[in-house]
Amino acid sequence: MTAVETEAGTLQKGAAVGQSIPRKEDNRLVQGQGVFFDDVKRHGMGYLHFVRSPYAHAKIESIDVSAALELPGVYGTLTGDEVAILTDPFFQIAAPPGGHVKDYALAVGKVRYLGEPVVAVVAETRELARDASELVLVDYDPLPVLVDARRALEADAPVLHEECGGNLSYAGVWEWGDVDAAFDEADHVVSIKELHFDRFNSTPLECSGALVEFNRGTGQWTMYTNNQFPGFAAIMMGPALRVGLDKLRIVTQDIGGGFGNKITTHPQLVACCLLARKLNRPIQWTEWRTEFHQSMSHGNERWFEDTEVAVQADGTLLGFRTKAIDDAGAFLRYEPLGGVIWSQVAAGLYKWRHLRLEFTQAMTNKAPVSPNRGYSRMQQLWFTERVIDIVAQELGFDPVEIRKRNYVQPEDMPYETPNGCVYDSGDYPRALDLALELIGYDGIEERRAEASSRGRLLGLGIGSTLDSGTNNFGQSQLVNPDLQFSGNNEVATVKLDIFGEVVVTLGTTPQGQGHETTASQVVADILGCSVDTVHVRAGHDSYWNSHAGFSGTYASQFAVTGLGAVKGAADMLAGQMKKLASMVFQCPEEAIELADGFARIKDNPEAALPFMALGAIPNANNAGFPEDPPTMNCRYVYRPFFEVPDKERKFGNLTLTYATQIHACVVEIDPETGVTEVVDYAAVDDCGVRVNPQIVEGQVMGATAHAIGAALWETFTYDEDGNLLTPNFYDYHVPHALDMPPLKTAAIESPSPFTPLGTKGMGEGGGGGIHCICAGIQDALRAAGAPIVTDSHNPYHRVWELIQHPERSRESVEVRST
Amino acid sequence: MAVTPTTGRTISVEINGTTYEREVPASRLLVHFLRDDLDLTGTHVGCDTGSCGACTVQLDGQAVKSCSVLAVQAHGTSVRTVEGLAGKDGELNALQRSFHEHHGLQCGYCTPGMLMSATALLESNPQPTEHDVKIALQGNICRCTGYWNIIEAVVAAGQGGAA
């Protein structure tokens, strides 16, 4: 961390909050003593392996599992026909036509993407389950394959889900302001034929999986798993399995990365549940890497067609109109929520007031998409940043100046966007200045000339992003008015146990975000004790009664919802401790303070009760009290205040907080090969109050690495037959240590006026690295025919094409001036 | 002479100072022997292609990917896993402390492999430069940290900066 600026002089930081306290989780993790789902074992458990489709689209003619069942050590199998009898299709978030999709735990009748689970085989060992899967005979009748969302929407395209009458899953027109008038008024209209945001995901190092037990006596399943949104999984699984949610116990401890990709594991978990019941033994399922790549949670690929931008002569942006085509893949596991989530940041960081976006989502024969770090907002922010840099280049504006001219300004905060979202706080121009300072912006032209003398093309890029957090789930009603979800919540309990232990339970499912540490910091300051004496239970367990419908770790919200719940529960406990001490000392509650691990009389610190005494009284020493002592066991549900958005106007506040990240980079391109090297990189974060700056910086670093990977190397590429060409870490190149550029970070703290601690959710980062590297490449190539960067993914061969044929991309851009 | 293929074999491996004798199927990977047979679950699996390094252990002092070694190949060798790094009283060693202090881990899934690769590096090169560390960790993937803090942690451990 190289620079920190705090905007507010009134920050209420305590002894622990605001400190970079090394994480409590680390002690077990650096010793290999974490408990990840695959570490959990049970006597007699069977290992599950899925037989997966080798075709992207085919009818299933027949399935024969007899040879597999005859193999000694094979415990049993499950097929789609059984699943269709034993379960109901998963609830669909979509309204018709997408709402007609029939989605089960295993393929029923036909397969719709390569890698789709068709049969599950359970055997005594991992190796045997895999070997036995090879003996399952499935006859397929291949069907025409769709891998392009644009083609999927044509009238004569093959259809994935016949019930839907086509491949359209969702369509809606989103328009705010007076778009036509803005275009009439504009001095310049810049049009861009097509932009493409590529398909990739964050590929957490631990794949998905579970150990699932069935209790015959109670009819309850226990799942030791790494699902990161148990509230959502339970809502999906209960109706499918035809049971109440009390029958689904979901337990997580350590999770090996999630990034959104572990939200939609409910189909596989249902298969495990059915087999645990059918075979009467615990079921162990661990996904293999290739299976993850082929089937799990790809990010939303998106096209932006026929974009037009209205610009004034001075560079003021009035608005845009565009048509987004989103590729959902073969099933709608979390979709079409991507069809609304983007609108949290519809306007990006800019003040344009007249926006029109026609959103269309199509289903294709590719892996189903689901949330991926920066989910759906990253695509929109990339679009706005691309638009800004293309406009700047075509009209001759400076990329820094046009941003500063159009950014929402600090004095505009809180700022209501054209669609009713409220940006809570921030100073975008200052964050940009800091980022530019860190990459040496002042000397950039000298460096460009120096690089040129070495035969290299040097460019500077900026990526401005918002990390919107704490969803108002009421936005789901903007894509399906019949849904009954709104608002948000999270739960925590804080209690004082018999020996004075402070014990905290969270509803969240952290995957490396350090919740045990930051929750301890908040509690320690409120109770007046040390961070070391606060014990936060690791992970999530629906037996703990510390969860609600939206519990989980996703969508940049823990610092608001999770810590809001922790603060609420700790405040309650502090009140109870003071009350009990006042009962013991027979003094007013106001006379008591909590400090140094004691409840004591402010004016007479000698009169002090240790936490141990306070914990013992209600729990084990309560005789003689004239009235019930407080329970010392406090549960708090944090609920941010939201209204249900206006469905007609598609208008309302969709998230509570807007953290900012401004990224800037310097790239050098070798024109002979098209290889891009990032030579300088800076990321400036503003997420309001930082409870633990080191953890915040770690999240910024992680988001940066993901974005650099996506910009240059990582892609889920399919051939025309629907084969995934990057199904493992050989072909899907994630950044390695040697790939990382030097990184400088800085932070501003603009506290949120809307949250209990002044914090904002952060962590996803908004794909800032993708935006700034695309901008850097375009800037570098100004000296090579000034092509336009139209794709979010720019491997060396694409850059080489841009250099060889700058006119091809230039044909997609046009300027009309009046 | 006719050879009868065998499907299993008894192996003896010294792991973190303890010698284990077990019968294992011929196809069992060392990583699954460690995790499933011996319950040494600190060593992780992150891919099926030998690419990610989460399963890295030391085999007779060399850092190897235990997903790319059969259990039977480990017969007669000495293996060190992440569980063998801390002192007997659970006290973290300098490298582990350095990861903790430099926030060199988030989810902790790659961490055992990172620590074992870095341990092998520090044994052969006690004061590595940043570039040395990057080279040594080239076979280990981390998806959370972007590597910056991991590199810093290993360099600091080499400079005795971990204390």
Notes on the structure:
By secondary structure, chain A is α+β, with helices and mostly antiparallel strands. Chain A folds into three domains: 37-143 and 207-255 and 263-291, Alpha-Beta Complex (Aldehyde Oxidoreductase, domain 3); 172-200 and 297-474 and 644-817, Aldehyde Oxidoreductase, domain 4, CATH 3.30.365.10; 489-638, Aldehyde Oxidoreductase, domain 4 (2-Layer Sandwich). Helices cover 27% and strands 25% of the residues of chain A. In chain A, the strands form seven sheets. In chain A, strands 4-6-2-13-10-11-12-23 form an eight-stranded mixed sheet, sandwiched between helices. A six-stranded mixed sheet of chain A has the order 8-16-15-14-9-31. In chain A, a hairpin with a 2-residue loop joins strand 24 and strand 25. The radius of gyration of chain A is 27 Å and the shape is globular. The relative contact order of chain A is 0.14. Chain B has 163 residues and is α+β, with helices and mostly antiparallel strands. Chain B folds into two domains: 8-84, Beta-grasp domain (Ubiquitin-like (UB roll), Roll), CATH 3.10.20.30; 94-158, Orthogonal Bundle (DNA polymerase, domain 1), CATH 1.10.150. Chain B contains five helices and five strands, in the order ββαβββαααα. Chain B has helices spanning 30-37, 94-101, 111-124, 130-136, 148-158; strands spanning 8-15, 18-25, 56-59, 62-65, 78-80. Chain B has a five-stranded mixed sheet with strand order 2-1-5-3-4, sandwiched between helices. Chain B is globular, with a radius of gyration of 17 Å. The termini of chain B are far apart. The model of chain B has no long low-confidence stretch (mean pLDDT 94). Chains A and B meet through helix 1 and helix 18 of A and helix 1, helix 2, helix 3, helix 4 and helix 5 of B.
